[in-house]
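User: Second chain of the day. Same drill as before.
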Amino acid sequence: MMCVCYQKRSQKRYHILYNNFYHTCPKPFLQAMPHFIAILAVYTILSASALSILPDNLINTIDKGGIAVLPNFLSPSQVSRLRADASNLYHDGYFTVDALAGYGAKAGARDKSNFDPSKDRAVLPAYIPSQKKNGPFVSGTLGDVDGRRQLTSTVAALRSDFARSLGRPGLDTPDGGDNHELSFTRFGPGAMLARHVDEHHEEVKGRAGWSRPTRRSISWLIYLNEEDWDPTSDGGHLRTYERKVSSAYSVGSRDGDLQLGWLVPTTNDPKERPVFLDGRRGGISGKCALYIDSDDGGRKLYLTKEFDSDPYLHLTSDYFVQNLLIKDHELGTRFHYVEQPKSKLTEYLGVDVGEQIKDVAPLVGTLVVFDSVALPHEVMPTLTRERWAASGWFHEEQQPCCRQILL
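Assistant: Same format as last time:
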């Protein structure tokens, strides 16, 4: 169940709608049309389910590449119940340590014998892709089954809401391992995650990019920490790298082509423009070109000629794209990757000046949502306590794989 305060907000909005209708309509009309009023009342009640769970301004934030933060999405009692379930299942050995957090990487590099799994990130997944089977999160016998089912229902409502409000109908699909990831996550003291994005274009991943039928579209998490969590002394912030100027267009993907970068605003063109990668030019996977939306949103304006994804997209940087792929120098200087491929060169050339840091404290019951492709982020170190959350990704279908280039 969602927090009661959001149910009350929906009811209040529809009461206002009904009252405005009643007091502004001529009374003879109302007296002559009792059945119409009854129908209107029923329509009002049924339509409440179509309200967005998130306010319109937060939906727009996600659509334009920012991070939506909704405090108190779950009540403290709901959070306490879920955290107790997660903690019990962790101590019973059902979580899996993935060693993706900063603690695991550094400790393992130094001396694997000194690795302490209690200080790393651990997950309780709903699905295990490597084994192609359901995970312990959806078990009908472990822990607080009803509590997790209620959470799953709430998350399913979110998914349907985003499918409608963000214009991504492919999100609203039945639950399954190939279209939705859901888990409890635990960060031990000292655990962190380095900067990254949650999804990349298929061609950037190489041939492995076409190995799954779906891809991540929306990232979400709900913090399950205790009420006395102090961001200053306990840490664990989610650090995001939003654009200083909000995107002028929807981010993430365009007709299946995922976003690869940005054109930063200039005096002559004050719009922040998402740049997309067409990886199937001529119907051949690996034949690529970069494009932006036209001002009317009805056309693709190509920035480059065709180029091969390998090696151009695997060993590259902002500087490479700016000076070699985009032939128009003025446009080229505006280009920045959403997330540059990691290399000594990109470290030397520095950061994207079009970004700004926004930290989100992991406070009890807070819902966080953002586009999986467009927003770089990292998890800052958890200092002295366990950091708990429910998290996941809503998937959309991946664009179909075209015929491959013959080697």
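The chain has twelve helices and 22 strands.

User: Great, on to the next one.
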